Amino acid sequence: MIVRERIKVDIAPKKLRVESEPYVTFVGRNFVAVIDVLDIKTGREYFLIISAQSISQYLVRWQEENNGKLTHVEFWINKIGEERKAPFELELA
Length: 93
Known about the structure:
mainly beta; globular
C-alpha cells in the first residue's frame, strides 16, 4: 500500500490525474472524503480532500459524464485567491 501525503493547492495551477474513486479517510481529527491523485509534473502521488463545494461540484459533473467513474480524469486545479477559505478553480485538462 502506498502512503500518500495531502496535496497542498495554492494559486499556482497543478495538473492532476485521478488515481482512485472517492473514499473516506481520517485526517487530523475528522473523517473526510478524498481521492488519490498523481501530480503530472512531479510524478508524485498524493491525496486530495474533496469536501469543498468548489471541488466537489466539478467532480460530480465529471463523474456523471464519465459513466460514474473519476479514475483517470485529468484536470487543472488552483485556488482563486491567497485566502485560506478561497474557492478552488478546476478545469479538465
